[in-house]
Amino acid sequence: MNPDDLIAEIEAGPRGPHIAAFFDLDGTLVHGFTATHILRDQLRRGQVGAGDLARLVLTAVDGELGGDPTRAGDLGISALRGHLEDAMTEMGERLFVQKIAGTIRPQARAIVKAHQRMGHVVVLASAATRFQTGPVARELGIDHILCTELEIEDGVLTGRVVGSFLWGEPKAQAVRRFARENDVDLGQSYGYANGDEDVAFLASTGRPHPIAPGRALRATADLQGWPVLDVVEPLRRGVRSVLGTAAAAGGLNAGLVAGAVLGAVRRDKRAGTNVGIPLACDAALALAGVRLDITGEENVWKARPAIFIGNHQSSLDPVIMGSLLRRDFTGVSKAEARFDPRMVAASLFLDPVFIDRSNSGQSREALDALTDRIRSGTSIMIFPEGTRMPTPEPGPFKKGAFHMAMQAGVPIVPVVIRNAGQLLAPRATVVRPGTIEVCVLDPIDTGEWTAEDLNTIVPEVRQLFVDTLEKWPS
User: What is the rounded CA–CA span in Å between residue 240 and residue 247?
Assistant: First the structure.
């Protein structure tokens, strides 16, 4: 079954909180296993001994060969004995940002949002702990979590479980108990999972949907007539990606050099920049195997100069904006980016403004100088979140871009970048080939704005990004 068809089916069905959607975590909402990241982190920090690791591996193998797979979970939890609850919470949040956020399946995110639009109760049901499930649930706006709860005494983990390890039938029991306690009609509710152990969990719902299921679950789905949801797995880095990334870096530099030579020959830096930047960005994207699918491209040219604001999840975003804006623009970045090697060549051409947010006086002076450049015909590219986000959900927008637009009397043009993080995640170094979707929204007139209005206007503009990402224009 296609995810788009499923979403259409959900939106054509009944509304209301008497219907629930239960989502498994590992392999369903996220690609892979969140526990793997915890184990690697603890090994790297010396928090898991060799004996504990050996017992965990042997138990996991035994589970694959027909033994009790919950023993691996019990051993993993017992290895946490003596850990501070606060430290585990911090670790869960850190690993979410560093590792797990980028593994959330885009299709699963879209399905969750479809249920939320319909007013359904959305529940994350998993054998994982709250340290793993909590950040993912918060990111997706899921209010209810059924998970393996760990016993904590005086802020310290005891290495024991409260109640049952939610694997197999205990997970199904937890779902049925939740339905009874919350007046949920399980017969009309949805279940999503990928594991062979989740047959009982899915069978508890009236609308089970295996997602990228294992062999045994797929066989059960075929037997029961359950619609299988096939999703696109995350792109993997390979030789093409590595070679393409190296070629892209070379193409970027070659384009910049060509622009510099032209500027020197003509004794016109601006002319050189206007040739070098689009040449460099186009070459980098093409050599990396990245294609842009642009909606609303005419809005790039409707009102120049302007403040072009974009959501920011990937290091590809400035290159995308450069290819899109092409000429007569510069950028704004945080002060520490001045020392980023990747910024050196671009800085020579664009002459961006670096703002030290810890120094309000310097920030005001820099923004005033930038306002003068805007009035002279230079557009501005800025990412108002201030840093790359670990997930596609836009972070809070800072007000600097909006103040600049007001002072210079130019419009704001939102540029929504949909999936750059799938091709180059926030901490990744290799670009995967693929298509990035970009939507340039209509320019927003700032002529009637006042400083007092910004507390309302800034969240409203951010919401345009959220709405566009959720309902991409055809």
Answer: 10
For residue 217, what is the domain's CATH number?
Answer: 3.40.50.1000
pLDDT per residue of the chain (474 residues) written in tens, 0 to 9: 888 899 999 999 999 999 999 999 999 999 888 887 777 776 676 665 545 544 444 434 333 434 455 666 666 677 778 889 998 899 899 989 888 888 898 899 999 999 999 999 999 999 889 999 999 999 999 999 999 999 999 999 898 889 888 888 999 999 999 999 999 999 999 999 998 889 999 999 999 999 989 888 999 999 999 999 987 666 566 777 888 888 888 888 888 888 888 888 888 888 888 898 999 999 999 999 999 999 999 999 999 999 999 999 998 999 999 999 999 998 877 665 555 555 555 565 666 666 666 665 556 676 777 788 888 899 999 999 988 888 888 999 999 899 889 989 999 999 999 989 888 887 778 898 999 999 999 999 999 999 899 999 999 999 999 999 988 987
Are 203 and 54 within one domain? Answer: yes
pTM over 0.90: no
Please state the domain count of the chain. Answer: 2
Judgement on whether residues 123 and 250 belong to the same structural domain of the protein: no
Tell me the CATH number at 395.
Answer: 3.40.1130
Longest Cα pair distance anywhere in the chain, in angstroms?
A: 78
- Indicate the Cα dihedral angle 29, 95, 57, 168, nearest 10°: -30
Asked which of 172, 189, 224 is the last residue of a domain, the reply is 224
Q: How far is CA 118 from the centre of its chain?
A: 23
Same domain, 110 and 207: yes
Distance between CA atoms of 225 and 203, rounded to whole angstroms?
12
Contact 316, 431 (CB under 8 A): yes
What is the C-alpha to C-alpha distance for residues 145 and 148, in angstroms, rounded to an integer? 10
Same domain (yes/no): 184, 290: no
Residue range(s) defining the domain that contains residue 308: 239-470
Asked whether residue 361 falls in the same domain as residue 287, the answer is yes
